[in-house]
């Protein structure tokens, strides 16, 4: 009896926090309330809601998700000693749970006071590799780096995005917000014009989503490999016939910070699968 | 109890439906609505619906090259991803060779009878004259210091093709 009442109350709670929105032909879509009233989006709709259902199902199933091999690579690397100090990540962080490492991937890009800089998850991994393992720094888009980010992001699966955009991160955040509205490329389109004003509409064969970053790194089916979030930015730059930037550029970190704030409250779903 | 649970969720769905249908019912212009709902309502505004016919009289009646374009080349420019790439945003049922056609702009079926040649030229050069908040890209810049997506001959070829869409 109480269980049932609990369930009913739970459903009501879900109804408040995760309302359904409807498409033109009356199909419901899952949606979450943004964490901040100042978020320009009224509802956060996960990217999976705009995918062909078969691809969304593939993402949700670890055995079917092609990016999962990379998660396993990362998991093995986590426990394998490397570098001159004879340690592995696990020596200090335990089996992916201690020191808050499970949640960590939902909080980046993050301001690090020691560096006086906002850094991405990949930079954080490299910091630990250099300082705590005595190992070499990995390239942003190298397979071992993709493996480690995929593993850490997968650990955070289901945890709501909670990036901090205040204090010392505010300046970079504002830069990201401005970039998001800047018209770019020969077509002179801003990120907002596609992902804010026109999501749900079709651009070529793809339905435009709200452009949330929570599923990255993600397996791109047409290229049969896993791509970073910054590579997705480059693809969008190419769509408007503009110039892309390398992974880890200041502009891309600013955009990543703004996008993560914009999706605050959406659960992490990495590693994603995309057509 | 299960029934109550069912009712509760039914109520919620109905409530969100109501909220959504009324969030823009009382008002005004589509542009206003777009700003208010940050895009959610756009899904209901079928871009292929009633054509957004331009009422402005401004048009560019003279061919940019001084002579009419070529229909066959125009179709190629339209499809080519590196040049026109019009089908990323528009649908044209007459083009059956391209499967993935977009829905950001209105369908261009019958566009040749909706607009005069001069109006089509105006839309390709600068659509903002008709649609002030247009995201339809400006395809031609006569000032050589600015990058132009298409050259004058390509624009004329495109217009020749668009005129055949009756």
Describe the structure.
The complex is a heterodimer of chains A (275) and B (166). With 275 residues, chain A is mainly alpha-helical. Chain A has 2 domains: 43-65 and 161-274, Cytochrome c-like domain (Cytochrome Bc1 Complex, Chain D, domain 2, Orthogonal Bundle); 68-155, Orthogonal Bundle (Cytochrome Bc1 Complex, Chain D, domain 2), CATH 1.10.760. In chain A, 41% of the residues lie in helices and 9% in strands. In chain A, a hairpin with a 4-residue loop joins strand 7 (218-220) and strand 8 (225-227). Chain A starts with a helix and ends with a strand. Chain B has helices at 2-22, 30-37, 71-79, 111-114, 117-126, 152-162. Chain B folds into 2 domains: 2-45; 71-162, Cytochrome c-like domain (Cytochrome Bc1 Complex, Chain D, domain 2). Chain B starts with a helix and ends with a helix. Classes of the chains: A mainly alpha (275), B mainly alpha (166). Chain A binds chain B through residues 1, 4-5, 7-8, 11-12, 15, 19-24, 28, 40-43, 186-189, 193, 196-206, 208, 239, 241, and chain B through 1-2, 4-5, 8-9, 12-13, 15-17, 20, 34, 37-40, 42-44, 46-47, 87-89, 99-104, 135, 137-138, 147, 149.
CATH topology of the largest domain in chain A: the name is Cytochrome Bc1 Complex, Chain D, domain 2
Largest interface: A-B, 38 and 36 residues
Low-confidence runs of at least 5 consecutive residues of chain B: 1-54
The arrangement of helices and strands of chain A along the chain is HEEHHHHEEHHHHEEEEHHE
> What is the helix content of chain B?
25-40%
> Which CATH class of the largest domain in chain A?
Mainly Alpha
Shape of chain A: globular
Whole-number mean pLDDT of chain A: 89
Please identify the top-level CATH class of the largest domain in chain B: Mainly Alpha
Which short descriptors sum up this protein?
heterodimer; A: 275 residues; mainly alpha; Cytochrome Bc1 Complex, Chain D, domain 2; three-stranded mixed sheet; two-stranded antiparallel sheet; globular; B: 166 residues; 0% strand; disordered N terminus
